[in-house]
Amino acid sequence: MQNLLDLDRPAMVEWFRARGEKPFRAQQVVKWIHQQGVDDFDLMTNLAKPLREALKREACIRGPVVASVQRSADGTRKWLFELTDGNRIETVYIPEPDRATLCISSQVGCALNCSFCSTAQQGFNRNLSAAEIIGQLWMANRLLAAEGQAQVSNVVFMGMGEPLLNLDQVLRAVHLMQDDFAYALSKRRVTLSTAGVVPGLQRLARESDISLALSLHAPNDALRDELVPLNRKYRIEAVLQACKAYVGEGRRRVTIEYVMLADVNDSDQHAHDLARVLAQVPSKVNLIPFNPFPAARYKRSSARRIERFRDILYAHGVVTITRRTRGEDIDAACGQLAGDFEDRTRRRQRISVELMGGAA
Ligand code: SAH
Description:
360 residues; TIM Barrel; alpha/beta; DNA polymerase, domain 1; binds S-adenosyl-L-homocysteine
């Protein structure tokens, strides 16, 4: 049984062609699924009955199932989605006056083991399929439409997982996000956030033009080694070079994410160093107040410290904004997504050692 959510438009055309159907049939089906949110072939009224019957036999349209939903006082909501194998992932909807952002997951858990992130605590379980990635957007829009709420206008790969370590599936989902026959989101409205996987950045530059965010969090390698262990494999200099190469023609500045950890990376000197390090890359800085979680060993920098840090960056001419924390009351803020593992024997499994080439 082919889950049609797994197919971007070229793959859908191929799938229909193999069944002796014209390419425009594939386009019609893509529109039904992604623009109308339909999962019932009988509702696809512009397809002939025999084709609908054949589709019912050979294909399905199956998204993740809502296990629970939590609503924040600020309008943010967090869905816990259950996948067919019982694993659970989190997806966050963040409404604002001028946009509605969906923060989606790319893996069940995460292998990178960043010391300030709650997703790291559960270790890595598996990659999501393209269907499971686009399925978060597909399902969110269906649920929102049923309530008369604004459809998703922006997508950020800032949920669970490292998207550049699941790039095949992520790119297929991105194609659908950008496809005029599906979600038609412009490159400004789809942002991939990465801890800095250099080969992934290089491939992304060849195959995509979406917006890029880099989780930097430290201005020097010694400190970044501690916060983002992936840094032992891909040093700041190499990562920033790859980001610079990414920001070629027609692409915007890279967003630099910097989590504000009290007395760890938030001194005046860190701010000066950060400005110097960033001078070589067209970038803007997003300061993220640390969001606590059980067993966290860090504290959030004070509001005054964050302001001071921002002012120093400003003085160096670095465009800086402080990310407003949303959905904190439902653990939906950055770094608070945990999901749930079905297979608890694999809970502590990490592929980080292999990933770091033994350096960890
Ligand atoms: N693996 C990707 C995608 C995760 S994005 C990446 O590293 O970019 C999630 C963002 O939230 C990242 O910038 C991450 O560093 C940040 N983050 C993680 N834990 C956090 C926490 N406890 N408080 C604030 N931000 C956090």
